[in-house]
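Incident log, structure service

09:12 report received: a user says their structure output differs between two submissions of the same chain.
09:20 pulled the input from the user's history:
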Amino acid sequence: MPSPTLAELPKPPANKTGWPWTEESERVPDSMPDGKPWPKVSVVTPHLNQRPFIEETIRSILLQGYPDIEHIVIDGGSTDGSLELIEQYSPWVKCVVQKGEGQSAAVNRGFTLAAGDLIGWQNSDDFYGPNCFRQAALAAAQHPDCAIFNGMVRGFQGQDSRPPWIFENCNEFSQEKLLKEVCVMNQSMFFRRKVFDKGVFLKDDLHFAMDQEFFWRLSLEGFLYLLVPSMIGYYRQHENAKSTSYNVRADLEPYAILRGLCRDRRLDRRLRLRAREQLRARFMNSFFHARRTLLKKLALELILPI
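09:34 re-ran on a clean worker, output below:
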């Protein structure tokens, strides 16, 4: 399906201007520079009760000006009116309701349904910048040996996606970098279809570190990453995001990943030793964090009126 034009989409709220509300990407030519058709691009969006943000995600996908797109929303049973909002975009968005299976299972469900040659995963509170699909397709054509294409991600707070950014992430992937930090992010990333044809998916039982575990597994399976700086995605921090509150499980999942890396012979021994160092550092950090949290709770009991 070709991207709709701005005039074809529902009118944006009166207080919304700029990309992707009142602006759209340039229309992509009918064929690639070599005369071949553009690859189909599919985007999977897991969603649950994100009505304030989901429309911006949808519009950033539909307004890419790209000749062959597919957008699949996997909804976990929203009750905040967002399903009615998504319905306004039903000529261009396929919405599947799948209750109670979690974000990773929702993303995997979308990956299995996607028909694209290039497949993206964009969360329902994040969005793409303009011309992302064109840049991903050109990079894929020029680098047939690569399977994952990652770009720049800009972080922002709440509803204001203008600079200054909280962070800008634009890194070439390396295993060493991924041990130190979140060096690549799904907000500006596309996968070749062969990744999923070979059965590589997210782990359904992970809820916090599923992206980093997935990126590690792709690398260990031999898939190559390519940095495409002209692809830009936007990551939103807000009070209801999972990453804004401490959860013990959010610590346990990275521990499990690092433990696995310490023993994985596909990883260079030097990096396995580095993974063990990271495991120790995470343990100490989590111990002190949990202790401070516990002390705060206990201190309240000492001062609350009886």
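09:41 both user submissions now match this output. Likely a transient worker issue. Closing.
09:42 reviewer note: Strands lie at 41-47, 69-75, 93-97, 118-121, 127-128, 148-157, 167-169, 189-192, 225-237. The longest strand covers residues 225-237.
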